[in-house]
Specification:
Strand content: 25-35%
Number of helices: 7
CATH superfamily of the largest domain: Probable tRNA modification gtpase trme, domain 1
Number of domains: 2
Strand order of the largest sheet: 8-9-10-7-1-11
Oligomer: single chain
Structural class: alpha+beta
């Protein structure tokens, strides 16, 4: 967590007004402290060509400051990692993986490096990240001395602009002392700090998969609603043939769906249809409107909105709903 004299932490999940925080994300400007997330920077004259060969989306044609979602897949077409990729300079690219367990992406990628000029740079000691979310995010950022889309000379920040979970998002990476200056300025200007509970409710309602929950090597990009991260017309990459065949021959057998859950339902609960196992709950959260929501994988034969499923070991039913939910 940040030092108390630097950044005021986001509201604790049990104390924050989740409904107010959700309104800020969806209609205003919310600020979210994400130092526990995982990210890295790839540098070197060959790094972009290398990324092009390794991930599911086209990256070598992207302009500086442009964002694209990518997946790193194994030979089976299963998900190794999902990342938000942003070109920072001609020779450096930021990959934001998100929260969850420690990753081994550099070690996995290193297996495929031969003589290329590539360097993996993990966050430096004292480096941190915040994100500004909501339709007013860019307007709020105008008060920060940023000279272009990817760096701020005055504050020595990396800046990535993207759309995440349906809202404008700006992520800022830099030394904690400088991020603190930005945080305090944004809060002074009216940005609302949000905690993990509100962020997670918005993520689930938007149908965005998370590392360690919906994203793992048990699933492929099509199942995880990551079609936007796959370019079927780009050159070869690991897992390409399998991923292309799954789409071309309609071989995707399960889908990530939204769920309305009964009280007490939680992650890893098995989902049944007429007593037959058809999927499981990946994420669950309590919505401020007194309903429990979640994401889960369900066999396609039963993955239709309004379908009711049993929860193994419980008397209650859950219902599949359209995504996004809001």
């Amino acid at each position: 967590m940040p030092s108390s004299d630097l950044i005021e932490p986001s509201p604790p999940d049990n104390d924050g007004d989740i409904a107010t925080e959700l309104r800020a994300i969806r209609h205003g400007a919310a600020i979210h402290y994400v130092s526990d997330w995982h990210w890295l920077t790839l540098r070197g004259r060959d790094h972009l060509d290398f990324l092009e060969r390794m991930c599911t989306n086209a990256v070598d044609s992207r302009d500086l400051g442009e964002h694209v979602e990518v997946v790193f897949a194994d030979a089976r077409g299963r998900i190794i990692e999902r990342a938000d990729l942003c070109r920072v300079t001609e020779e450096s690219t930021l990959l934001v993986l998100g929260p969850g367990e420690p990753h081994t992406l550099p070690e996995w990628l290193d297996r495929y490096i031969f003589s290329e000029d590539i360097e993996f740079c993990l966050p430096a000691t004292g480096e941190t990240m915040i994100e500004l979310l909501g339709p007013e995010a860019h307007r709020f950022l105008e008060g920060i001395p940023c000279h272009d889309d990817t760096t701020s000379d005055d504050l020595d920040l990396m800046i990535a602009r993207l759309t995440w979970a349906g809202v404008d998002t700006v992520r800022l990476v830099g030394a904690e002392t400088e991020i603190s200056r930005v945080w305090k300025r944004l809060v002074h200007d009216g940005a609302i700090p949000v905690g993990e509970a509100a962020w997670n409710v918005h993520r689930i309602e938007s149908g965005v998969p998370l590392r360690g929950a919906e994203l793992s090597d048990a699933h492929n990009p099509w199942e995880a609603r990551l079609s936007g991260a796959v370019d079927l017309n780009k050159g070869c990459y690991i897992g390409q043939e399998v991923i292309a065949r799954l789409e071309a021959y309609d071989k995707v057998k399960q889908s990530l769906v939204g769920l309305l859950l009964p009280d007490g339902a939680s992650e890893n609960d098995r989902l049944l249809h007429d007593g037959k196992d058809v999927g499981y709950v990946c994420s669950a959260a309590q919505h401020p409107e007194q309903r429990r929501i979640g994401l889960g994988y369900v066999r396609n034969a039963h993955a239709h909105p309004k379908t009711e499923l049993e929860i193994d070991g419980r008397q209650d039913m859950c219902q599949i709903v359209d995504l996004p939910m809001h």
